[in-house]
Design goal:
Structural class: alpha/beta
Low-confidence stretches: none
Distance between the termini: 29 Å
Helix content: 25-40%
CATH class of the largest domain: Alpha Beta
Length: 421
């Protein structure tokens, strides 16, 4: 037997796998974190990629809006914002002129204790923070994208600032291609209707993980961010430990694309055979905070398992399924075709996750090892369940057979499996 440990919330669980069955671990091509994070952040800020440096953008007396990721993202926000605030203060910006906006998109607002975790108590005590709520009226229409005719309405506080800065991490995204950059405007600080109009294009064949060229969702996001008059971005790429590998700052597009190159280098993994069983962890907290977030790890690694094979998702899902529309669509629609019709007719945020999950269930058996009640996991989301990973593995063997082969993906949220014949 081989013991393989996988992240689960903030701890680990062990899979006991017969030696003859284990094909190996599919892991990102790790790069070490930088030895001095503050130095790396300041380097990026002072050596911008494209566009003007902050010293040419920021003047004393300017009001500044800075968008940061919400609680569902693994971005090292505290590290980024600390360096950014130091640089802004150095350039004459006063704390009272700076507003930090949590880019929640369609997620719930950030709680007070989460804000302290994301930013640090010291920053929360001195800088004004607000959580974006996509459903409120406190938003401003800034224009319509030319190609896809999305009416862009965004957070009012962001539009009222003199200087607009985005922060975040660049990682793979299953229909925007990659997170980071322009995504901190749409969906992060956009209205529900703006997000809905953009995300309804998920049925497009180019709206896939790691694809940017001809991806309509990405192209629309870029145009929306330009309408928002973004002045500067600070993005980072992290390894599986959450350590910053490199920071990228400067122009909305140029800095982002440089970061994308590094993510592709680190996260794309080629395999020459598919397994009968694949065990996947999203990577622990916060990637497994709920099923809505954890599913991304499955989508990234569908190429690792044979059709008819078994996927075991190891995700605590402490906050349950995570999205009401996801829940409603899983109860309302029974097959992929009916969801596709609904998406074309009336797309609602959250419904896309039901679409992806049902597509995966068409091809594979999926077990969930979590703390989610069976009523939801089984009756609503059509998943098989087990309270312990090795119990799920034994059930998987019954389906796949004793001579089965197994891949293990410990950090599914940052691993993209490509099958090469």
């Amino acid at each position: 037997m081989v013991d393989v440990w996988l992240p689960y919330n903030k701890t680990e669980v062990c899979a006991r796998i017969p030696t003859r069955s284990l094909l190996g671990l599919i892991e990102p091509k790790e790069k070490s974190g930088v030895p001095d994070v503050k130095k790396e952040i300041l380097r990026a800020l002072r050596e911008p990629i494209g566009g003007k440096p902050l010293s040419d953008i920021v003047n004393p007396g300017n009001t500044i809006a800075v968008v940061v990721d919400d609680f569902t993202r693994p971005a090292p926000t505290h590290l980024m914002i600390t360096g950014l605030l130091e640089e802004l203060n150095r350039l004459g910006a006063k704390d009272e002129d700076i507003t930090i906006i949590f880019g929640c998109g369609t997620h719930r607002e950030v709680k007070a204790n989460e804000a302290k975790t994301l930013l640090g108590e010291e920053i929360v005590s001195r800088i004004r923070t607000i959580s974006h709520n996509c459903h409120t009226k406190d938003q401003v229409y800034i224009g319509t994208t030319k190609k896809y005719r999305t009416k862009v309405t965004i957070n009012k506080a962001f539009t009222e600032a003199d200087i607009h800065i985005l922060t975040g991490d660049i990682e793979m995204h299953y229909f925007a291609g990659f997170g980071g950059g322009r995504k901190s405007v749409l969906p992060a600080i956009s209205s529900a209707e703006t997000i809905r109009h953009n995300h309804r294009m998920i049925l497009h064949p180019k709206a896939r993980t790691s694809i940017l060229e001809e991806n309509p969702i990405h192209e629309d996001m870029v145009e929306a961010a330009k309408l928002a008059k973004v002045d500067f971005i600070l993005n980072v790429v992290t390894n599986s430990k959450g350590e910053i590998v490199k920071a990228f700052a400067g122009d909305l597009e140029e800095a982002f694309y440089e970061g994308v190159k590094l993510v592709e280098e680190m996260c794309k993994v080629s395999i020459d055979r598919r397994a009968d069983i694949v065990i996947i962890s999203p990577g622990g907290h916060p990637a497994d905070i709920d099923l809505y977030q954890a599913y991304k790890a499955i989508d990234n690694n569908l190429n690792s398992v044979k059709r008819g094979g078994v996927i075991i998702l190891v995700a605590e899902c402490a906050e349950g399924y995570g999205n009401e529309v996801f829940y409603e669509w899983m109860t309302k629609f029974k097959d992929v075709k009916s969801i596709e019709k609904e998406i074309k007719k009336r797309f609602v945020i959250g419904g896309h996750k039901a679409y992806y999950l049902l597509k995966a269930l068409q091809k594979n058996h999926i077990f969930l090892v979590s703390t989610m009640p069976d009523y939801y996991a089984t009756n609503v989301f059509k998943l098989r369940t087990a309270r312990a990973l090795n119990d799920a593995l034994q059930e998987a063997f019954k389906i796949a057979g004793k001579n089965t082969k197994i891949w293990v993906v410990p950090h599914g949220h940052i691993t993209l499996t490509e099958f090469k014949t």
